[in-house]
Amino acid sequence: MTAKPPKNINIVPFVSVDNMMKLVLGVGVETFLRELADYIEADFRRWDLFDKTPRIASHSAEGVIELMPTSDGEVYGFKYVNGHPKNFREGLQTVTGFGVLSRVDNGYPVLLSEMTILTALRTAATSALAAKYLAPRGAGCMAIIGNGAQSEFQAMAFKALLGITKLRLYDIDPAAIEKCVRNLAGKGFEIVRCDSAETAVEGAQIITTVTADKQYATILTDNMVGSGIHINAVGGDCPGKTELHKDILLRSDIFVEYPPQTRVEGEIQQLPGDHPVTELWTVIAGEAVGRRDAGQTTLFDSVGFAIEDFSALRYVRDKVASTTFFDRLDMIADPNDPRDLFGMVLRADKAA
Q1: Hey, how many other C-beta atoms are within 10 angstroms of the C-beta on 255?
Q2: What is the number of H-type helices and E-type strands within the chain?
Q3: Residue 205, Cβ neighbours under 10 Å: how many?
Q4: How far apart are CA 37 and CA 44, in angstroms?
Q5: In 10 A of CB 59, how many CB atoms?
Q6: What is the bridge-based pairing of β-strands 11-15 and 327-330?
Q7: pLDDT mean values, one per 10 residues, the chain (352 residues)
Q8: Which of 171, 241, 273, 325 suits a disulfide with 19, CB 3.0-4.6 Å?
Q9: Phi then psi for 253, rounded to 5 degrees?
């Protein structure tokens, strides 16, 4: 006898952009970031359970389109995401995305969500989570070089998780700096506008680089980075795209998400394939040491990894369930007899 499927299994919750914004504001941005970081941290602690593979990327001269899959054995998730730096000149987002969670036991999806906003939130939450283990103790000032779409999320995450309230901002486009200042007004920050990257890093204990151009770039030179600094390198995230001078890498303790991916896409693409790095999950799990002393220069070579997106989708699935911030999509064919899919189609004509 065929088991009766759960009621309404064909209906999949869908979190649109509009509902994601309502969810974030309903929860509160800082609370959302803290709780999201908790989910990421929890999943990093069970790292060994996950399927792990570098993202599947289709590169072009204009940008990249990627799929990022993983599973913990019970739930499967993937994200579709692009990165097209030229898009902002055409009034389009540089990064867009959506994601899906599914049950492993029957393959049915349980969540479909926008991930343009959610990716920005999970990137910032991961950066701040890494800094919790790697940044100098008592750090209160962060420089953000590159004040585009990710900058405010980074600032809010570092405030929520580390208590950072002093920001030094720089972008080659003064309008981007003003946009960032305007959006962070009233959020509890003391902000200094800077006229160069060199000026921005003065007095900062944490330096976040988050630029967009798809090219080898030198946003930070070795003489700009003193000892004891934590660098949160976010912008370099695909082959041929970096932000830091190689000499900075050679004197830093480097922490990464997943080496097979980061060696291709991150700052360490500039180094030999056997250059030592520490996987962030091992620090979080207590298997490796993060910051050892005040004089240590640490670098989080962040490129984004599928487990972080899995955590973000898992968080949204749990958080949205008790709200009205989702739609119900009739996504899965659900015939009375699983063998009679064609008959279901024919009956639709009769119903009309």
Answers
A1: 25
A2: 11, 17
A3: 21
A4: 10
A5: 14
A6: antiparallel
A7: 62 97 98 98 98 94 93 98 88 93 96 97 98 97 96 98 98 97 98 97 97 80 95 87 94 98 95 97 98 96 97 98 96 90 88 66
A8: 325
A9: -85, 120
CB 266 within 8 A of CB 299: no
Torsion angles phi and psi, residue 208, rounded to 5:
-110, 125
Phi, psi of 140 (to 5 degrees): -130, -10
89 — phi, psi (to 5°)?
-70, -15
For the record, the structure tokens of 150 come out as 């990710």
3-state helix, strand, coil in the chain (%, to 5): 40, 25, 40
- Residue 166 β-bridge partners: 141, 190
Where in the sequence numbering do the catalytic residues fall? 237
List the structure tokens of 174. 């003064």
For the record, the structure tokens of 112 come out as 């479909």
Q: What is the pLDDT of residue 72?
A: 98
Residues 85/63, Cβ–Cβ less than 8 Å = yes
How far is it, in rounded angstroms, from Cα 39 to Cα 35?
7
Q: Which domains does the chain have, with CATH numbers?
A: 11-117+307-332 (3.30.1780.10), 137-304 (3.40.50.720)
Coil/strand/helix, residue 261: helix
Whole-angstrom distance, CA of residue 248 vs CA of residue 227:
10
